Amino acid sequence: MTETVRRIERAAGSLASASLARMDDALPWFRGLPADQRSWVMLVAQAGVRSLVEWLRQGGGVADSPQEVSDEVFAAAPRALARSISLQQTVALIKVTIDVVEEQVPHLAAVGEEVLLREVVLRFSREIAFAAARVYARAAESRGAWDARLQALLVDALLRGDSSDVLASRAAALGWSDAPPVAVAVGRSPGGDVTAVLHTVYRIARRIDVEIIGGVHGDRLVLVLGGVANPLAATERLLAGFGDGPVVVGPAVPSLDTATDSARAALAGFRAAPAWPTAPRPVAAADLLPERALAGDSEARRDLRQDVYGVLVRAGGELLETLDAFFAAGGVLESAARALYVHPNTVRYRLRRIAEVTGFAPLAPRDAFALRVALTVGRLDPAALGIPNQT
């Protein structure tokens, strides 16, 4: 096919131009591309025709030849083109170019080689499609690795408490919409390749329509959830992406700018979670306040001191006195009533009031534990509430 190859080589420029004109007519989305991207497509089309010539010269036109089309045919365009044009659109462009070449077969083929050239073009179109698939697969892998790195940097910035500008720029690069509310979930990573771990989580998140940014931080998997009314319920549906062990969800915050607070609470809860072996999975960081306080979390100690002990102090001495008597009586209501010289119904009423003002019910074992820790923390540092130390 020496003469046919020469004819195709001479017609390379006109074939590429005709292909571009056909793309304009047949593909509405192509007409909307910026001028620079259209010029890149033109370069690829020209490279494709040159690749057909080179393929034929190296024996690719033989039916049983193992010759493959080199991926270099797409090297004429920058990698950014793969982000602007999808694989499906690329296949459409290839089809248009092949159609133009097939129409020109009578003018390109030497006498008696028309049928052979059509078969060659058909095999070439298959090989060029495979080459495009390989290019897009590599681009996806590279983009996935870069996204995983960028997500890891964002998680690191979040855990460090970096400025909102740093968080916003990195989140924007990942396409984060910052839909409120935002919450952070922390659990153990299942291990293995970080990209594969994040891919699993993202696949689940897409299925349940949850926006997330994830990163593996040491042996921990940290997820930032956005636009989820109930972060705890959403995290429960994402549990398959975590490894064994506790999964702790921080409080919901208005935006990514303030997500450091949620991340800090979730991490503190994750560290303290082993102290509550029967904790639900996932568990809210707020439900681990007593364990977090005992583990040295200053924010948990402050919350218990101000929102529990301080509330009881400000409510008047009888609530605090009743709670002390109730605990001293081992949780037996009648014994507490005798110690206070009041009717048991009075104790019941005061215990209900304690539950109303603090959010913790003394009759519930778990809440009673939190109340005990709150009393201890508050009495160890009464000055933080402006209460004189009476020791």
Keywords:
391 residues; alpha+beta; Alpha-Beta Plaits; Arc Repressor Mutant, subunit A; 3 domains; five-stranded mixed beta sheet; 18 helices; 7% strand; rod-shaped; CdaR-like_regulators
Give an overview in words.
With 391 residues, the protein is an alpha+beta fold. The chain has 3 domains: 140 residues; 126 residues, Alpha-Beta Plaits, CATH 3.30.70; 88 residues, Arc Repressor Mutant, subunit A (Orthogonal Bundle). 62% of the residues lie in helices and 7% in strands. The chain has a 5-stranded mixed sheet with strand order 2-3-1-4-5.
Number of helices: 18
Question: Roughly what fraction of the amino acids lie in strands?
Answer: 5-15%
Gross morphology is rod-shaped
Helix content: 55-70%
Extended strand count? 5
Low-confidence parts, pLDDT < 50 over ≥5 residues?
Answer: none
Q: What structural class do you assign from the helix and strand content?
A: alpha+beta
Taking Cα atoms only, what radius of gyration do you get, to the nearest Å?
A: 34 Å
Q: Provide the domain count.
A: 3
Order of H and E elements: HHHHHHHHHEHEEHEHEHHHHHH
What's the mean pLDDT score? Answer: 83
Strand neighbour order, sheet with most strands = 2-3-1-4-5
The rounded distance between the terminal residues' Cα atoms is 104 Å
Question: Please, what is the oligomeric state?
Answer: single chain
Strand count, sense and closure of the main sheet? 5 strands, mixed
InterPro entries: CdaR-like_regulators, CdaR_GGDEF, PucR_C-HTH_dom, PucR_C-HTH_sf
Pfam families: GGDEF_2 (PF17853), HTH_30 (PF13556)
Organism: Micromonospora zhanjiangensis
Family: Belongs to the CdaR family.
